[in-house]
Amino acid sequence: MCKIRRLALILVVAASAASAQVLTPAEIKDPDLRSLQQQYMNDLKLVGEDILALPLEYHFYLSRKLDLDESQQQQADQRSIRFDRYNGQTVLAVTGNYYAAYPEKIGVDQRARSTFLNVVMPILKSEVPRFQANHQVQGYAVEISHHVLGKVMGVTVESPENLMVFLPQSGALRLLGSRDENVQQAGLMQGQIFLNAQPVTVWLNGAGPQSALGTDSDASATERRVPLAGTEITQAGEGSGGQAPPSTSTPPVAKPIDVLPTPVRDTSPQALAALQASNQELLAKLVKELDPQAHFVSYASQTFVAFRHGIYLELSLNTALPESAAGSRYKLAAMAFDDHVAPLIRPALAYFKEEPKFDGISFSTTVHLAGKLPAAGKSQAVEFFFPFAVLHCYEQYDCTGQQLIDAGIVLLNGERVALDLQIAEGGPGR
Description:
Elements: H1 2-19, H2 31-39, H3 41-52, E1 60-62, E2 65-66, H4 70-75, E3 82-86, E4 89-103, H5 108-131, E5 139-152, E6 155-168, H6 169-177, H7 181-189, E7 192-195, E8 198-199, H8 215-221, E9 231-232, H9 269-294, E10 303-307, E11 310-321, H10 329-349, E12 360-369, E13 380-387, H11 388-395, H12 401-407, E14 409-412, E15 415-417, H13 421-426
Parallel strand pairs: 4-5, 11-12
Antiparallel strand pairs: 1-4, 2-9, 3-4, 5-6, 6-7, 7-8, 10-11, 12-13, 13-14, 14-15
Helix pairs in contact: 1-3, 3-5, 6-7, 9-10, 11-12
């Protein structure tokens, strides 16, 4: 009987702790959000239980305030799981303090990536499965404070740094619903990530603008310490905040290979023909207005093609490079991207502001030297397949051209290749 009572007591304490992580409906001013909070209170408590059970290396607390000293945090209100608004969308929001401190020699993107993998991902893994089919929940917002160690006049000081992650529902499903790292990356790019209110890009595989930061290096490079002053989180309906699940391991370093489209598309000839017909007027306008810089192939129309279970708009181009570009076929492909394809990306995307019914754009070009006809054996056929997620990343200056290529697929004379722009353009001819 004693054991049964002890077990019952443990369960009551656990349930009470989980409840202490969730805002009460009465605290939420927006009536729609308050109704959601009441309706899904049990699910929110389960999320709280999962967060309490996370095996994090450094202490983590849900919190109504960011940047609290840990001694203050232990006494502070730890209810932060709530429904809130972000850019007009209804999101499940979480806010908390993570008591790890990164030496300032670790770059901004590295710090964001480490906290994202170690804290945000595990939280999302608890939230998303419970709310993925809920049409009232349009996304997830997670706000987490960690710390940075630096020196001022030879004295070690610690300052807070706040990571804010927003993911729409579709991006969260891509991130967590696929085993393909590149599909996950595409999902992550659908959202927004800020570090101290400045946009950053988190690359799951450690490539991209920051070098890899593995779990072991995270442990050795961080020290358990705390931040300074706190900032009150906003009430639901007045702002946003949140947090997301951590990941217990860091993926191996590798360049992105490809990004597969998440939606299951009907790629039958009938579906492609219907898509072509519905977009014919728009494509005619695109060709007319962009032809002076695009140099579309006159004998080939701009059509929709099926590729790797997805649908891409294939823009057929003719690229003439200066004779000084003579060199290997890889050099020609790289220069065709830099000099011809890359400048077309933003103008082409401007024609597809609404949610497209296809997965990306293929820039298919025949590359030859100026003054020489694109004859067989003297020209190169290059196809760049880019999903919309990475195209928009490039469009917004969050990705470089190399990152765009790494996340897409390049075919050179019908064969898939890896294309390093700097090596191809700077190396000797072949």
